[in-house]
Amino acid sequence: MNKSNAVPKASTAISEERLWKRHMDMAAIGATPGGGVNRQALTQEDFESRSLLVGWGKELGFKCSMDAIGNIFVSRSGVDINAISVMSGSHLDTQPNGGRFDGIFGVLAAFEALQAIDEVGILTKRPIEIVVWTNEEGSRFQPGCMGSLAFVQPDQLETLLAVKDDDGVEVRSEIPKLKEYLPDLDFHDLDTPLSAFIEAHIEQGPILEQKSKTIGVVSGIQGTRRFTVQVYGEDAHSGTTPRGRRKDALSSAVSMVTALEKIFHNDPEDILRFTVGRFDVSPNSPFVVPGHVRFSIDFRHPSQDVLNHLGDKVEGICQSYANNCTVDVTEISSSPSIEFDGLVPNTILEVVQNLDIPHMSIYSGAGHDAQNFSDFCPTGMIFVPCEKGISHNERENATPSDLAAGARVLADTIVELANR
After folding, report:
1. Cα(86)–Cα(348) distance, rounded to whole angstroms?
2. Which one, of 235, 164, 250, 197, lies nearest residue 71 by Cα?
3. Quick check: 382 and 201 in contact, CB under 8 A?
4. C-alpha radius of gyration, the chain, whole number
5. Comparing C-alpha atoms, which of 303, 186, 189, 282 is closest to residue 236?
6. How many CB atoms lie within 10 A of CB 45?
7. DSSP 8-state code for residue 131
8. Would you say 143 and 226 are in contact if contact means Cβ atoms under 8 Å apart?
9. H or E segment to which residue 224 belongs
10. Distance from C-alpha of 396 to C-alpha of 389, rounded to nearest angstrom
11. Distance of alpha carbon 369 from its chain centroid, rounded?
């Protein structure tokens, strides 16, 4: 067994130029006029990006496989055939007007790390797997982090496969299309034991940039509760229906959102995050009183007590402001606040100190696939800065040097974990 210090460090073989070029190659798939990316889960663009990654993996002689929900794995063998893998990766799917680095950095940094480890000739005790999780964003299909959830909880697979998009298309019907697009992949089991999982990601916030730090050692992820609210009224003529006889779903929905904001925005420390990001009005005509409204609620906070207390108020507030309408509130997903500690963050910290890269401990306001692994195996995350903290936006940006620094930390961390 080669010790990690018996040969050059994997970090020395990280190519900033190669890593950047791969980001730009991926950004061309689903590119938007504003310089961003629209590559939603299980679309043609998603298929093409996965195919590009698999092609790179096969060119380098790595094994490529796929599981029952379409997660993609690129693997390098370890010396001990009985050892459990170290896994690293993220996602390729984006928001409709997403950026070029959200998710994809974690995949490409892990792939660059794998290639660097191979080029340096480091033999690892454990196999190393790079993963692309299906539908992290939750834009086309809700909930998000679907692929990683199915991986750690296979009993959820059938429920997740039955999820439909806005056009009534089930996840179940899209997976065979992906398999047809990538027909030569081995099968990978769900719920495969892992010795560790590590995810690299852009911060999606402004803290690292403000603090002039290149690496964030992530200490945890705040919890979330997500709801869909359906308000049912009655379509009516806008010119002939008196106000007293209207069942105006839009008016009621606006009252609900206003009331919710008064409670959820009452946070002097500005820690709580409350967002209504989707608002669908039907029939969406200027001459018809709206008979139906659907809107989303995304609520986040580090404290589980706050999540429980305020989240449990949502339905009651909506019912109170229904007026002449009826309302249906459905909680579509929830994730508890989690902490990363122990093996993986400690190893990241040791590596970043050895590389002498400016760093800090940081808490994640955004959800990530890594949150599904906190009870599954030792888990941690690496953040790198993004310009002005902008993300889920076509103006999302990161520098080649910061991305390469994150990949260097990731590469050496993977080697340490894979030789444990």
Report:
1. 14
2. 197
3. yes
4. 23
5. 282
6. 19
7. E
8. yes
9. strand 223-232
10. 8
11. 5
